[in-house]
Amino acid sequence: MTVVVDAVDEEEEKETSDRDPFEEDSIEVDRRAIDRVSPAAWVGRLSTRLDEIVGRLAWRR
Fold it and tell me: 16 lies in a domain?
């Protein structure tokens, strides 16, 4: 198995070291759009809701 750093040519490495990644166009996605489709966001919201319900039941609020 080769390491990515070992697989890169030295010449390419010199050319890309001067490149600014923020200079080029980029794709930006709204945080709310990510949260709608992200399973991690769903689980986080579910966990928060379950925690609130269990807290209410435990403390009888």
Answer: no
Q: Which domain holds residue 47?
A: 30-61
46 belongs to a structural domain: yes
Q: What is the DSSP string of 19-46?
A: --TTTS------HHHHHHH-HHHHHHHH
Q: What is the pLDDT along the chain (61 residues), one digit of tens a residue?
A: 455 555 555 555 555 566 666 777 777 888 888 888 888 888 998 999 999 999 999 988 6
What is the CA 39 to chain-centroid distance, rounded? 12
